[in-house]
Design goal:
The chain is α+β, with helices and mostly antiparallel strands. The chain contains seven helices and eleven strands.
Length: 256
């Protein structure tokens, strides 16, 4: 028997629950048969082929996994349609500042983000190891999802962004927790989309508060430059590790 982390009931078996809905991994996969997961360290570079993305068979029963389906479907609709016919918000000087998210149902969209956050926190897959909300936040988010409500959800305000000049499109980075100016956040990633979710009672600072996703439109997916971003640092670090790995491997081969 296995215990579902959502309903706390023992079940003969649990579902192959996708933390990030498998529909987003089709974007990663493109025309290929599989998406590829890469882990790089100084000692090894490992690639794992994923046909349907990551799943965790230790967190949700079949009935509870279905509770997430309406939220996942809405999230997928919003964050794929936004790129099909981009509606761009420009400032007075014509500078492209944001994409306007289409046909947003704020309740469904926020529960989609909360679902990603909760599943990433309770999963023990290595990919999600840098997110641990703690029992208080996990219990509160679970209650919001179970009731289908976002009341009293101000702890989890979020900003959505996109890098137009991203040199590595359609990738999903592992989520991570981060403290910015004393406030706790979690970065969540989808292909070509990232969320900065506040996991904290303190209010968002002014810069973030102006661009956060609100109940009423317009809903902005802010355009940030890739250069100098957290993602740019991640990829530069990855490339440095890969270069060092192959340099060390060549050195060992020459001295063998």
């Amino acid at each position: 028997m296995k215990r579902c982390r959502f309903c706390n009931q023992d079940k003969p078996a649990l579902a192959k629950a996708h933390v990030i809905p498998r529909s987003f991994f089709r974007i990663v996969r493109g025309q290929a048969k599989h998406s590829t997961e890469m882990r790089a360290s100084k000692n090894a570079i490992n690639e794992k082929y994923q046909q349907a993305g990551h799943y965790d068979s230790n967190i949700l029963c079949e009935d509870c996994e279905r509770k997430f389906s309406p939220y996942d479907a809405h999230g997928h609709s919003v964050f794929t349609n936004v790129f099909k016919e981009p509606n761009i918000y420009r400032d007075r000087d014509g500078y492209e500042c944001a994409y306007l998210l289409p046909n947003v149902d704020f309740r469904l969209l926020k529960l989609f983000v909360l679902g990603l956050l909760w599943k990433a926190s309770v999963s023990r897959l290595f990919f999600y190891c840098k997110v641990d909300l703690g029992q208080r936040h996990e219990s509160k988010i679970k209650s919001l999802i179970a009731n289908g409500t976002i009341e009293d959800g101000d702890d989890y305000q979020f900003v959505c962004s996109h890098h137009k000049d991203h040199p590595y499109p359609n990738v999903i980075l592992p989520p991570l927790s981060q403290r910015i100016d004393g406030i706790n956040y979690v970065h969540l990633y989808l292909p070509n989309v990232q969320f900065l979710v506040k996991v904290d009672k303190r209010p968002l600072p002014g810069d973030f508060a102006r661009i956060m996703i609100r109940p009423e439109p317009p809903h902005y997916m802010v355009l940030f430059p890739f250069k100098g971003s957290n993602q740019a640092g991640y990829f530069e670090g990855m490339k440095a590790v890969i270069r060092e790995h192959w340099a060390n491997k060549d050195k060992r081969r020459r001295t063998a």
